[in-house]
Amino acid sequence: MEKEISCKIKLAVFVLLGLAILLLGVYFIGQSKKLFSTTFSLNTQFKDVNGLQVGNNVRFAGINVGTVDAITIQADTSVLVNLVVDEKTREFIKTDAKAIIGSDGLMGNKILIISPGSKNKSAVLDNASIGTQVPVDFDEVLHKLKSTVDNAELISKDLAAIFGNLRNGKGAIGKLFMDTVFALNLDKSIVNIKQGTKGFKQNMDAAQNSILLKGFFNKKDKSKNDSPKK
Q: Whole-structure pTM over 0.85, yes or no?
């Protein structure tokens, strides 16, 4: 008899614990879905919802204030999103407020973020429509980033090939840096040019001092001095 009573007590405790867990679950789900608070509806339209789903959170000023209630495709470039928002938030959401689709963290679920709008505007009405902002397409950003990395890799390979040719003495610049014979010949050529220029100047000086050509150069200098006077 006592054993039977003990089993019934254990069964009753188990049932009560199960009911308590069930009620707590319903309460927390209701809180997250705003089932036990006064709410109002908002509508907004997007060209692309970027993976937003029914049940995702609606966030205002960093606080979850509602959920996405329905998503309806109206046309190939128009998607209607219905929101259920806590009534306590309505006075802060103005008629020029904007909705934008974001992410809860870098790789988290999609959320819908509402900006407050201008302070001098009136609060939105129930079942009102608000404007939208074009969300950032992270897939496109990642694609552009990948293209940039690929281009940088190609440029680095080209630079490595150029410096490799320089180290191996390939090309005129490579020979200039690495081929000592080529560099020595280039130095000799420069020295010869300097010597030739110096010799030419000496010959011209000698010609000017020559008795046969001295009159010619004096006449030439005189014509230069007389030309400005004309």
A: no
